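Notes from hallway chat w/ T.B., transcribed later so I don't forget. T.B. wanted the structure written out for a chain they're using in a teaching module, and asked if we could keep both sequence and structure tokens in one place. Agreed to drop them here.
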Amino acid sequence: ERDQLFLVYQPVFSLRENRVSGFEALLRWLHPERGVLAPNEFIAIAEESGLIHSIGEWVVRRACATLVQWPKEISIAVNFSAVQFQKVTILQTVVAALGEAGVSPTRMEVEITESMLISQHDLAIPLLKSLMELGVTLALDDFGTGFSSLTYLRRLPFSRIKIDQSFVRDMLTQPDCAAIVKSVIALAKDLHIEVVAEGVESSEQLEFLQRNRCDEVQGYLFGRPMTFDRA
């Protein structure tokens, strides 16, 4: 109500096409006393209070309004909270936001985490399938940090999986992390799913991912989260 929320956008770079393929929309709160706050500082409170539903609707509408101003080959990814899937109106919210902005559903990606799927399994699966039938793409975020990744890769036709940055950060110095990253990329290729590596910060990391045929990358090497006027 006080217009203190805003979105920043972090680019996702396609290694196959050698261009920015889209942006991930990230929520920020410009607090009058504490400055800019990241989601981990206030989302839990929003979930407990129930405000997450109105905040989530605002995020989707703002993301779509931004997306319509970008070239048609650019997509946008929006993160969803587990609590948001407790209301079936989430589907109507996405449909309405896309319709109001005049944006094709294929340009929107919904990002969900493994932990979200575990906690809201019964509610989330039908809604996610409905979103995919609409044309919205689906990404599994923080891949490798949960407990049932492979189960959900079979049950839902994800468009892409995102390798958690904790593996990318240590893959050049820790053999186990390197093995995990290479295995996830190979698995994604066999399943015909695109794979995104998060947290890429150096040219050495980029070269490793290129050698192993990673599809897309995201991280400070290509751009920090930025406001719309800089995206």
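Follow-up for T.B.: The CA atoms of residues 46 and 79 lie 15 Å apart. Might be a good example for the class.
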